[in-house]
Amino acid sequence: MRLDDLAPRLTLARTPTPLEPLPRLSARLGLELLVKRDDLTGSHLSGNKIRKLEYLLAEARALGATAVVTCGGAQSNHCRATALASAPLGLECALVLRTPRGRAEELEPARGNLLLDRLAGASLRTCTPAEYRAWPSLLEGVADELRARGARPYIIPQGGSNALGSLGYVRAVEELLEQAGDKPPSAVVVATGSGGTLAGVALGLKALGARARAVGVPICDDPASFRRVVLEIAAEAAARFGLPRLTADDFTLLDGYQGRGYALSSEEELALLRETARADGLVLDPVYTVKAFRGLLDRAGSDALPGPRVVFVHTGGIFGLGVAGPPLYGSVVGTP
Ligand SMILES: Cc1ncc(COP(=O)(O)O)c(C=O)c1O
């Protein structure tokens, strides 16, 4: 398989991202733990989403789009990356953001990712969590609106999670295996929020003949729904790009680490943020990576997440760290 022949790609991410050891956490776990620093794919464009957008925005341009439309939570990393990557390409960016009551006032004050959406000039629409369940038709509705005034919109699904976007993680796996050389991983662990990253990792490992287990840790929702989504994306990737067919045996979903739910933190998660920062200087985000890392610590070395060499993909999310603010962190982070 020559990945570069599968689909056109823009160069947006700073790659290869480093693969680094985590010596103190490894000693604690009794296995070798490494981190693939996809939180370093850029500054404002950091995180996993930009790898998917390299393919998605290349297609948008090839189709002659003048605008992109996508959606996510109010503090979506995907929406922020889309807004910031679209601006220099001359693509208008329209975002549908989920807020508790679906009101524009709830986007104030603009902080974190939301502030960056604004800086990039994206237009923002809001919806309630109930309305968001029908996100594909919400995006179609916005696209119709844009078409009515002469724009040519390109719809990007939530999280950039479809077959084309998942190629970003097939490519990341190729990069990782090259870096690992004669010490290949036994498992690759990612936080799972819309499924595309896990689909790409599982597809990449299978396509490249690696024996490592692809492991996703859902940070919201139930594993069964993610299993369905990953298999759908993989089926689309098989049909469109000739990638191998995935079955449910090709990846593992670890259940039980969603905590209080999407973007809600528990004391235990916040304590882990502190612990990893102090152990190996590993700064996680409160919405995705800390939940996934909890699952990793809990299950590393088991059949679901086999040793001896586990790679955690740090998928980014740093802008979420500032949003929770002192009231949330005070009790666990402590004051000097
Ligand atoms: C920081 C971060 N990590 C992990 C994920 C999960 O990736 P995916 O949506 O591809 O499952 C996301 C986005 O949802 C994210 O923003």
Q: What characteristics describe this protein?
A:
14 helices, Rossmann fold, alpha/beta, 10 strands, 336 residues, binds pyridoxal-5'-phosphate, 4-stranded parallel β-sheet
Structure commentary:
This protein is an alpha/beta fold and 336 residues long. The protein folds into two domains: 3-47 and 162-333, Rossmann fold; 49-160, 3-Layer(aba) Sandwich (Rossmann fold), CATH 3.40.50. It has helices at residues 3-6, 23-29, 49-62, 77-86, 112-119, 129-132, 135-148, 163-180, 196-207, 223-241, 267-280, 289-299, 321-324, 326-333; strands at residues 19-21, 32-36, 67-73, 92-98, 123-127, 153-155, 187-192, 213-218, 251-253, 309-313. The strands form two sheets. A six-stranded mixed sheet has the order 1-2-10-7-8-9. α3 (49-62) packs across α4, α3 (49-62) crosses α8 and α4 (77-86) packs parallel to α5. The longest helix has 19 residues, at 223-241. The model has no long low-confidence stretch (mean pLDDT 95). The structure holds pyridoxal-5'-phosphate. Pyridoxal-5'-phosphate binds at residues 47-48, 77-78, 159, 161, 191-198, 285, 288-289, 315-317.
How would you sum up this structure in a few lines?
With 336 residues, this protein is α/β, with parallel strands linked by helices. 44% of the residues lie in helices and 15% in strands.
Unreliable stretches: none
- Overall SS class: alpha/beta
The CATH topology annotation of the largest domain reads as Rossmann fold
Our estimate of the beta-strand percent is 5-15%
Largest sheet: 6 strands, mixed
Rg calc? 19 Å
Q: What is the count of distinct domains? A: 2
Bound molecules: pyridoxal-5'-phosphate
- Strand order, biggest sheet? 1-2-10-7-8-9
CATH class wording of the largest domain: Alpha Beta
- Ends apart, CA distance between termini: 53 Å
Shape: globular
Give the % helix: 40-55%
The tally of beta strands, per DSSP, is 10
N to C succession of SSEs: HEHEHEHEHEHHEHEHEHEHHEHH
Residue-averaged pLDDT, rounded?
A: 95
Q: Tally the helices: what do you get?
A: 14
